[in-house]
Amino acid sequence: MTRRAEHCATGRRGQPNLLPILLDNMYVLFLIFALVMQAHAQPERGAVELRRANSLRYGEENGQRMQELDGDVYIVKDSLEINCDRALYFPDSGKLIFRENVMFQDGERLMFANEVRYDDWTEELEAKGDIRIYQDSITIYCNRAVYRERLGNGYLYDRVRVKYDPRGVTLTGEIGYFNHRDKSAWVTRDPVLTRRDSVGIVDTKIKGDTITYNETLGEATSRHHVSIERDSLNAFGDLLVFYPDSLFAELTGEPLALSGADSISGDSMRLFFKEEELERVEVHGDAVASSPADTLPASPRQILTGKLMTLWIEQSTLSRALVEENATATYYVRDKQEAEGLNTTSGDRLLISFDNHRISRIRVEGGTEGKYTPESFVANPAARKP
């Protein structure tokens, strides 16, 4: 060792330098303190407490200690309370099995089932048989449920039904999921969402491959092979967002709406309801609307096209239409039920009124063009000049 290096190691006048040793000791003390504080910060997992049972038998099963409880069983762990007729407890593995008339309560969440298997160490549970789960005004029904954290969120199986009583919304399906924290749910395998009015009559039915509902947002979403039925409306598409409170729905993915004899399609569609009836439809992108020219059977159809279209519906019948951007109206002219020909009118903006299915008034703005085809040519296209 050189003299300079020796001086650095020993300090002045040959005395040892204690600073590195002190720093190492302080670091070790800091780690010990941090671990102790972390241990105190984590809540201690509560023990399983037997509060009541008519009989208790100690035994062994597959090499594990077992406690068998029978009759009026009441067990507590932290905020968790369980009542049942029979229970098995395996303290070596933390496994508990509750059977017959099981009532499983964690705070405001309450579950009834025929059997519940609970892991004391991981807090996972599986419930089977005639399951009913209650939280606030929400009720869940199914035949099997698997929860990863007590009653935090879980997967539901077999005849799933989730009822949101305040809004009259019910989800049904064969498989589901429920998050108890934000009160959201989804269902799949033949899922259906229904909404009931104030007197309990179903006024809306939604189908799709998967349906989700968020209670906090008051929003339902249906994806793929979507359909919505409400009063005389039947609409179809690939994605539907429905707001039960505001009675508003948005449909995308080649949407098609049928209301009475009227047909509406476009790139996207907004549906506005008033009480049970469809009141207004807004269509964006390649909008097409068609309706019968009159009330006669096999009546020809009049057609509206444009990039933006607003349609007003009264008593399931088209009453007014506003067509914008490359707007075109093709309609039949009649006088006292006698056909007189076919009109085609186009412009930047068309405002159209209907009376008993017929166009009674049309106002054109910007780039007006019109074409009239006499009835003789309409009835016999071969009579037209080549």
Which short descriptors sum up this protein?
386 residues, mainly beta, 26-stranded antiparallel beta sheet, 64% strand, disordered N terminus, disordered C terminus
What is the secondary structure topology, with strand pairs?
Layout lengths: L2 H8 L8 H23 L7 E4 L2 E7 L2 E14 L2 E11 L4 E12 L2 E11 L5 E11 L2 E10 L5 E12 L4 E11 L4 E5 L3 E5 L5 E6 L2 E5 L4 E12 L2 E11 L4 E5 L3 E4 L2 E4 L2 E7 L2 E16 L8 E14 L2 E19 L2 E18 L2 E8 L3 E6 H5 L7
Antiparallel strand pairs: 1-3, 2-3, 3-4, 4-5, 5-6, 6-7, 7-8, 8-9, 9-10, 10-11, 10-12, 11-14, 12-13, 13-15, 14-15, 15-16, 16-17, 16-18, 17-20, 18-19, 19-21, 20-21, 21-22, 22-23, 23-24, 24-25, 24-26
Structure description:
By secondary structure, the chain is mainly β. Among the domains are: 3-41; 43-123, no CATH class; 255-386, Sandwich (lipopolysaccharide transport protein A fold), CATH 2.60.450.10. Helix content is 9%, strand content 64%. The chain contains 3 helices and 26 strands. It has a 26-stranded antiparallel sheet that branches.
